[in-house]
Write a structure and sequence with these properties.
Elements (H helix, E strand, L loop, with lengths): L3 H9 L9 E2 L7 H7 L8 E5 L10 E6 L2 E5 L5 E5 L6 E4 L25 E2 L9 H14 L1 E7 L1 H9 L1 H10 L1 H26 L5 E5 L3 E2 L2 E2 L3 H21 L4 E5 L5 H10 L3 E3 L9 H7 L4 E6 L4 H4 L2 H14 L5 E5 L8 H14 L4
Helix pairs in contact: 4-5, 4-6, 5-6, 6-7, 7-8, 11-12
Length: 358
């Protein structure tokens, strides 16, 4: 029986795998799901590992709990608050406010050992030391196809600058925006090279996560992307491949089609998550980019939330048929609590019944 790594790498090489590989991550996995589906690790073939890539790990500290909020300084130098039990944070202050010079920021060394204890995305895990992380990574490599992860220069620059201010920089001061993006990209690249080396990711590679679009299109124009971010992407991707990794994937929510020609030209090998609500249609993308590895495609906001069994089956089977000769990994952006167990089971059963190519 083929391992998850064999399945994924066969598909990435545009050869027919024994069955279609899967990549699903779960916000939570209740006991009822485990009873019906088994453990979550049996539902996905890919595990993503991430380092602590933030520039200021030593600054992170809890400040106080007040009025139902936790206040803290994070490793990006932001002062943030989080409502008790909430998933997202509100940013109150940033490390690079208006008027500050990016050269005034000194990032902590990418080679620090503690950056690489952080671990996997799903199921999430943070490790206490190198030995614990190494044991878990070894176990994951027996079960999954393991890739590394870094952020990208757009979204991580907003962590330093603030989202609104950085968009204003892009629109009104392109030289400053590029200076910030270059500084962030060079730091992320050094972290990525180090994780490739430490985690032995040359057989697989690295995913760059850089959400820069909404459902109606990118948050910046193609000319702005080309001038400010494309040079950084070329450097990052070239450096990861020079470090020996086989594949570089790009992840962004939303409709990134206006930027995609440039990203493909910069050297990305794969794309995720391909949200149908954002018009990222896998069939059309395959026609335009015949050698781009497509991962995702299952709609987690309509089809899996409130679609009929027939709609779920039709969507899954279209992706399965597209992947018959490789180049496809089926999955969702993520599996949130809004998706009923019964609907996910339909999707799971379609993959089991029709996703066998042997």
């Amino acid at each position: 029986m083929a391992t998850s790594q064999q399945l994924v790498l066969t598909a990435c090489a545009f050869q027919r795998p024994r069955r279609i590989p899967r990549f699903d991550s779960f916000w939570e996995f209740p006991a009822a799901w485990r009873e019906k589906l088994g453990p979550p690790e049996h539902l996905s073939d890919i595990s993503i590992w991430y380092p602590d890539e933030a520039p200021f790990p030593s600054r992170a500290r809890h400040l106080r709990n007040e009025g139902g909020y936790d206040y803290e300084v994070d490793a990006w130098g932001r002062t943030v608050r989080r409502r008790d039990g909430a998933f997202f944070v509100e940013t109150l202050e940033v490390a690079l406010p208006q008027g500050a010079d990016p050269d005034s920021l000194t990032f902590e060394p990418p080679e620090a050992d503690s950056r690489y204890f952080t671990g996997r995305m799903d199921p999430p895990a943070v490790f206490r030391n190198a030995e614990e992380a190494a044991l878990s990574l070894h176990a994951d490599k027996q079960r999954y196809c393991v890739f590394g992860k870094t952020g990208g220069p757009y979204l991580r620059s907003t962590f330093l600058r603030g989202e609104t201010q950085f968009l204003m920089d892009i629109a009104g001061d392109a030289l400053l925006a590029r200076k910030i993006a270059d500084k962030v990209a060079d730091h992320l690249t050094r972290v990525g090279i180090e994780e490739i080396r430490r985690w032995h990711l040359r057989e697989t590679g690295v995913w760059i996560y850089d959400d820069m679009a909404c459902n109606r299109g990118p948050l910046l124009g193609p000319r702005q992307f080309e001038a400010i971010f494309l040079p950084a992407y070329r450097r990052m991707i070239r450096a990861y491949k020079d470090a020996g990794c086989r594949y570089v994937f790009f992840h962004s929510d939303g409709d990134i089609r206006p930027l995609l020609d440039m990203l493909v030209d910069a050297g990305i090998d794969g794309l995720n998550p391909l949200e149908s609500r954002a018009n990222m249609d896998m069939v059309q993308l395959r026609k335009r980019y015949p050698r781009l590895i497509l991962t995702g495609g299952m709609c987690n906001t309509h089809t899996l939330v409130k679609g009929s069994n027939a709609e779920i089956e039709a969507e899954a089977r279209e992706i399965i048929d597209l992947g018959r000769d490789g180049g496809v990994v089926i999955g969702t952006h993520s599996v949130s609590p809004e998706i009923p167990l019964e609907n996910f089971m339909v999707y799971h059963q379609v993959c089991a019944k029709h996703g066998d190519y042997s």
